[in-house]
Specification:
There is one protein chain. By secondary structure, the chain is mainly alpha-helical. It has 7 helices and no strands. The protein has a single domain, classed as Methane Monooxygenase Hydroxylase, Chain G, domain 1 (Up-down Bundle), CATH 1.20.58.220. Helix 2 packs antiparallel against helix 3, helix 3 runs antiparallel to helix 4 and helix 5 runs parallel beside helix 7. The protein is globular and about 60 Å long.
Length: 209
């Protein structure tokens, strides 16, 4: 065991929980892609994502519970709190977007929604890899590369949103404009929170490498 391992607490429960949360986020994002690509059985598909959101809430609660009960943590308590919160927000906005798709009664998705969903999913894949990397931080550069990619994907989502809104305002149905704009913005916000997750992970990699 090296000096770093001797100095840093070896309680791995936080890393286990973060990895579980990242995996749930990735699964929810994958199901979001499936929903936007094939907008059928919407109620059931939306329900499956809702169940994942509930599962994520439980994991988040467990993280904060562990944080309140652990005197010495392997990461700074603020880092743990920030990471848990940002991961939770990603899942909340994935769930929220599908909720709006269902309750707004839209007749179908479009290419913009599909593209945003794919960007969310790609971001969660990168996040899962980076989260696994903070367990030991043997390769901080690898973590940083994953975070840079998430930032790039968020920039692409900004562009998709801009094009989506531009196309939307070429139409004249005010109610549809309100509904779709809200869904687009909810999806794009999920990528914003993916970027927040990446920023926290980047900070952790730098501070603890």
């Amino acid at each position: 065991m090296g000096l770093r391992e001797l100095l840093i607490p070896q309680d791995k429960v936080f890393f286990d929980l973060f990895e579980k949360q990242a995996a749930v986020n990735k699964e929810a994002a994958w199901q979001l892609v499936a929903l936007t690509e094939e907008f059928t059985n919407v109620k059931e598909k939306r329900h499956q994502i809702e169940l994942l959101e509930h599962k994520g809430d439980i994991i988040t609660h467990d993280i904060y519970d562990q944080l309140n009960r652990t005197f010495i943590t392997p990461l700074d308590p603020e880092e743990i709190s920030r990471l848990a919160s940002a991961l939770d927000e990603v899942l909340d906005y994935i769930d929220g977007a599908t909720e709006k798709m269902y309750y707004y009664g839209i007749v179908g998705t479009d290419a913009h929604m599909v593209e945003l969903a794919k960007l969310i999913h790609m971001s969660t894949v990168e996040i899962e890899s980076a989260v696994k990397g903070i367990r030991s931080i043997k390769d901080p550069r690898y973590i940083e590369e994953r975070c840079i990619e998430v930032n790039r994907l968020e920039n692409l989502a900004d562009d998709v949103l801009a094009h989506a809104v531009t196309d939307l305002f070429k139409t004249t149905d005010a109610i549809t404009i309100i509904k779709l704009k809200d869904i687009y913005e909810h999806l794009e916000t999920a990528t914003d929170y993916c970027e927040d997750v990446a920023n926290v992970l980047s900070d952790i990699a730098i501070r603890h490498s």
